[in-house]
Amino acid sequence: MLKENYLEVRKNIDEACKRAGRNPEEVTLISVGKTKPAEMLQEVYDAGSRDFGENKVQELCDKIEILPRDINWHMIGHLQRNKVKYIVGKVALIHSVDSLRLAEEIEVQSAKKGVDEVPILIEVNAANEISKFGVKPEDVKQLVTEIAELKHVRVKGLMTVAPYVDDPEENRPIFHKMKDLAVDIAGENIDNVSMDILSMGMTNDYIIAVEEGATLVRVGTAIFGARNYATT
């Protein structure tokens, strides 16, 4: 069942790429396993997934210990500064950097652990929702410029969590705005900064996100089923 779910999501991504005139290889599907047991992630791994995302540091670290070593792990949830030391050097990408202080802590920990480069994304609160983390779109360029001065932290692009809406079409302008913002920042040619990655789109709206330029989509429920929050 999980294999079929995973392959169905991948098929939807490929078809969205076709409609948008994009190469499907430009889009990586991150299987988001939060609250799900490692056995289920293993099943999706066996179906072909090599990129997995987690929201919580403890859960991420626990799963890294028992799942295959060739997995690319993504920290996609809000990251507190005191938890940075547990994931630096273990994850392929930190999606949720939303302040200079957090980036500076990543810098400190990477130096301590001898990690040459920690790839990060800037989390953007694209819809200016009070309940969401992230930098206001108008403040992103300034933050990117400040983080670019750090030796070990590398800005690789942007991430956003779009509003939950009944009709995913409602989020199309937000994804479009994110793509424009990435292009705008890329045009600044800031040293040590690239805008190659656009992490946006989840179960509800990933197809629209791909049509608008997402290079990473973070899909959990469509692959693993509904969350069981009673266990957390």
How many helices in DSSP terms?
A: 9
Q: What structural category do the secondary elements indicate?
A: alpha/beta
Beta-strand level of the residues, as a percent range?
15-25%
Biggest β-sheet strands, sense, barrel? 8 strands, parallel
Number of strands: 8
Low-confidence segments, given as residue ranges, are none
Q: Compute the average pLDDT.
A: 96
Distance between the termini: 24 Å
The rough form would be described as globular
SSE series: HEHEHEHEHEHEHEHEH
As an assembly, this protein is single chain
Q: Could you estimate the helical fraction of the residues in percent?
A: 25-40%
Radius of gyration: 17 Å
Strand order of the largest sheet: 7-6-5-4-3-2-1-8
List the helices and strands and how they pair.
Blueprint: H1 2-20, E1 28-32, H2 38-46, E2 51-54, H3 57-66, E3 72-75, H4 84-87, E4 93-97, H5 100-113, E5 118-124, H6 140-147, E6 153-160, H7 172-186, E7 193-199, H8 206-211, E8 216-219, H9 221-224
Parallel strand pairs: 1-2, 1-8, 2-3, 3-4, 4-5, 5-6, 6-7
Brief digest:
The protein is an alpha/beta fold and 232 residues long. It is 38% helix and 19% strand. Helix 2 links the parallel strand 1 (28-32) and strand 2 (51-54).
